[in-house]
């Protein structure tokens, strides 16, 4: 969208870090690692004044550096990065550290239309819920890599699966092919 805040200074991000609750900064096109670190801090010490409806939404980002991804992975609530169009192996590895307070909190990467098996393998340590709603198909090679991811995999956009791919995905209990909200 063309609406909303397009850029943010590191200093402004530090000020926003004092905010409890949700932050929707979907107009941002870029984010420095320093600003990402401030936003990921999410309002001071987690648990003090904790708000259940907290989330960080940065859907305007089309790409991020591994350093920025590493800082965003420190966020303790649901994180939306639906604007990302590709996930490089290094960014995937950085995001694999995402470990929110609740394992059902999601990292949304619904803007991805494809995901390489190598990037999926780098997500292996990821322990929360991963939304990949932009994927319409999953190859057997990608399925093999996805079943190595420790957390829940949400593939709500998949419309066709081969018999082989379905068997691979269904070999684990925490793959969801149903539509999900937020």
What does this entry look like structurally?
This protein has 182 residues and is an alpha/beta fold. It contains 7 helices and 7 strands, in the order H-E-H-E-H-E-H-E-H-E-H-E-H-E. The chain has a 7-stranded parallel sheet, with no helix packed on it. Helix 3 (66-72) runs parallel beside helix 4 (89-95). It is elongated, with a radius of gyration of 16 Å. It starts with 9 loop residues before the first helix and ends in a 6-residue tail after the last strand.
Shape: elongated
Largest sheet: 7 strands, parallel
The helix-strand sequence is HEHEHEHEHEHEHE
List how many beta strands DSSP finds.
7
Classify the oligomer. Answer: single chain
Number of helices: 7
Straight-line distance between termini? 19 Å
Mean of residue pLDDT? Answer: 88
Beta percentage is 5-15%
Radius of gyration: 16 Å
Biggest sheet: strand arrangement = 1-2-3-4-5-6-7
Helix content: 25-40%
Low-confidence stretches: none
Give the class from helix and strand content and strand pairing.
alpha/beta
Brief characterization of the structure:
Helix content is 27%, strand content 9%. It has a seven-stranded parallel beta sheet, with no helix packed on it.
Tags for this entry?
single chain, 182 residues, 7 helices, elongated
């Amino acid at each position: 969208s063309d609406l909303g805040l397009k850029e943010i200074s590191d200093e402004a991000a530090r000020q926003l870090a004092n905010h409890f609750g949700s932050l929707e900064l979907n107009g941002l096109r870029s984010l420095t690692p320093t600003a990402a670190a401030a936003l990921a801090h999410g309002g001071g010490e987690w648990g003090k004044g904790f708000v259940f409806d907290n989330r960080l939404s940065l859907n305007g980002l089309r790409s991020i550096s591994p350093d920025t991804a590493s800082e965003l992975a420190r966020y303790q609530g649901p994180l939306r990065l639906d604007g990302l169009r590709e996930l490089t192996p290094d960014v995937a590895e950085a995001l694999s550290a995402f470990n929110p307070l609740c394992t059902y909190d999601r990292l949304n990467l619904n803007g991805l239309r494809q995901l390489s098996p190598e990037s999926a393998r780098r997500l292996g340590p990821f322990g929360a819920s991963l939304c990949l709603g932009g994927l319409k198909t999953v190859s057997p090679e990608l399925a093999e890599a996805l079943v190595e991811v420790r957390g829940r995999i949400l593939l709500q956009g998949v419309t066709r699966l081969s018999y082989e791919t379905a068997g691979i995905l269904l070999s684990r209990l925490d793959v969801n092919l149903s539509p999900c909200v937020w």
